[in-house]
Specification:
- The protein has about 200 residues and is an alpha+beta fold.
- It has a domain at about 5-140: Aminopeptidase.
- The protein contains seven helices and eight strands; from the N terminus they run H-E-E-H-H-H-E-E-E-H-E-H-E-E-H.
- It has helices at about 5-10, 25-35, 40-45, 70-75, 120-135, 150-160, 190; strands at about 15, 20, 80-85, 90-100, 105-115, 140-150, 165-175, 180-190.
- Helix 5 (about 120-135) crosses helix 6 (about 150-160).
- It starts with a helix and ends in an 8-residue tail after the last helix.
- Residues about 1-10 have low confidence and may be disordered.
């Protein structure tokens, strides 16, 4: 049975209309690794780095980042969350604010959902919650989201969260034996301010 501190970390820290973002816990890592990393066909489309056969241990991209202390955490260039469904508490996926640049006050947004949780509007909601974290808690000025041009679900999520299509990087990513185009979306803090973030 988890102690009081452990139970506190199981609840979502940030809430949207459908999803919550909470700290990653050890029990999340194996599930996310098996469903989001070991599915090679999906992973090579989600990450521009080459896929490698990694175990779910310390080298997993879903491993909990080690922070020496609170000050180190504030200076980190990545904020890692697990996405949960609010009404059930089920682990739905991974959400990351990465490449946090405190000088230019910018970062990149990344969300990946487990197969059983796709197509239900959860990705769009998780993107909104991640934006809320970036703008309202981290005080960032610009968020950017990149996805393959044929990733219609992520394109929809970006547009519904208020991102603007800014351009296309032609043939920029090597994906399963061919070069693919990537679309760039951007969202500025003043475009976010005043938006209805409840999902309505």
């Amino acid at each position: 049975m988890p102690d009081e501190a452990g139970a506190r970390y199981e609840r979502p820290m940030l809430r949207g209309a459908l999803t919550g973002l909470r700290a990653r816990v050890e029990s999340d890592v194996e599930i996310l690794h098996a469903e989001l990393y070991d599915d090679v066909a999906v992973r090579v489309r989600a990450d521009s780095r080459p896929w490698l056969p990694l175990p779910a241990g310390p080298l997993s991209p879903f491993q909990i980042p080690e922070m020496a202390d609170y000050d180190a955490a504030l200076g980190a260039d990545t904020a890692v969350f697990s996405v949960v469904v609010l009404d059930s508490g089920d682990l739905a996926g991974d959400a990351v604010l990465w490449g946090i640049d405190l000088h230019n006050r910018s970062a990149h947004v990344g969300v990946a959902l487990r197969p059983a949780f796709r197509g239900r509007g959860l990705g769009t909601d998780a993107v909104r919650v991640l934006c809320q974290y970036g703008f309202e808690i981290r005080g960032l000025h610009r968020l950017q989201l990149e996805t393959l041009t044929d990733n219609h679900a992520m394109t929809r999520a970006a547009e519904q969260a208020g991102f603007r299509r800014e351009g296309t990087l032609r043939g920029s990513d090597w994906v399963a034996g061919t070069f693919a185009d990537v679309v760039i979306f951007g969202l500025l803090q003043d475009e976010w301010a005043g938006r209805d973030t409840s999902g309505g």
